[in-house]
Amino acid sequence: MKVGIVGTGMVGSSAAYAMALLGVGNEVVLVDANEKLALAQAEDIAHATPFATTTVVRAGTYAELEGAAVVIIAAGVSQKPGEDRLALLERNVEVFRKVIDGIMAVAGDTILVIASNPVDIMTYAAQKLSGLPPTRVIGSGTILDTARFRNLLGRHLGIAARSVHADILGEHGDSEVAIWSSATAGSMPIIEFAEEIGKPLDAATRRRIAIEVRDAAYTIIAGKGSTYYGIGAGLARIVRAILADERAVLTVSQVTSEITGVKDVALSLPHIVGAGGVAAAIMPSLDAEEAEGLRNSAELIGGYCGKLSF
């Protein structure tokens, strides 16, 4: 199956690289306003495929996205000095308007996967601009935050991160919510598991881990300027779930008609992801503090979404 990626900077190219090495899709087409960049990224990634898979990676135009089952959008503009967040969002909406027009003209039945930040608001914008059902517009959301959470918990417990089942929900940003009440390891509540192996997760430790997850991007950006490998792998994971109709449960963002009393907003919950996009959203059991945090996150995102003009 063909996968398109629009925007071939570090995030878009990292997603292409991850898909090429994992064999996600049989063809990946890179599109960018900077055609030389798209060609350079495609050639560089293609030279890695003989060591791993038979996935074809090439540069192309919007016309060559025809028939793409999934298109990742990783395009956008950077914030100008002194520019407020809403002004940046409005400029990114204009970028998305052009990008989505180009995609929909040739691939009207595709599934859009949104990677551009702020990803929840841009997921909302992409769904409104494309006219696609919300089930077919998926933001990367907190898939990366969840991976960071599980990684840090695995380190603390001394177990494989893949043996940890714990989620970050809400905004991909400062209002994200770490869900402890339903987190498990070894089929046990994670706090009980931690006690049993002598590595307790007391309140201070839980608070530290949640802060480290939330601030991980700042730490990485301070050291190397931007984050891209983790989200590149996360995007490849979403696309694989779609192409293989895995019906995998992933913490991705989707426009929902109502969440915690906030209407028409995009944020992350556990979603079942398969061939049709999002098959269902799952509302986990939350304690009172987590429920309040999710509501605050929804209100924050919804406030920005409501100010955008289409």
Observed structural traits:
alpha/beta; globular; 43% helix; 310 residues; single chain; 10 helices
Polypeptide structure, described:
The chain is of the alpha/beta class and 310 residues long. It has ten helices and twelve strands. It has a six-stranded parallel beta sheet, with helices on both faces. Strands 7-8-9 form a three-stranded antiparallel beta sheet. The protein has a three-stranded antiparallel beta sheet with strand order 10-11-12. A hairpin with a 7-residue loop joins strand 7 and strand 8. Helix 1 (10-22) crosses helix 9 and helix 5 packs across helix 7 (203-214). It is globular, with a radius of gyration of 19 Å. The two termini are 32 Å apart. The model has no long low-confidence stretch (mean pLDDT 95).
Structure class: alpha/beta
Main sheet summary: 6 strands, parallel
Helix content: 40-55%
Spatial ordering of strands, largest sheet = 3-2-1-4-5-6
What gross morphology would you assign? globular
| Terminal Cα span | 32 Å
Q: Note poorly predicted spans.
A: none
Average of the residue pLDDT scores: 95
Proportion of residues in extended strands: 15-25%
What is the H-and-E element order? EHEHEEHEHEHEEEHHHHEEEH
Discrete helix count: 10
* Radius of gyration, CA atoms, in whole angstroms: 19 Å
Beta strand count: 12
What is the fold's blueprint, element by element?
Layout: E1 2-6, H1 10-22, E2 27-31, H2 35-46, E3 56-59, E4 70-73, H3 85-104, E5 111-114, H4 119-130, E6 137-139, H5 143-157, E7 164-169, E8 177-185, E9 188-189, H6 190-196, H7 203-214, H8 216-224, H9 229-243, E10 248-259, E11 262-274, E12 277-281, H10 288-305
Parallel strand pairs: 1-2, 1-4, 2-3, 4-5, 5-6
Antiparallel strand pairs: 7-8, 8-9, 10-11, 11-12
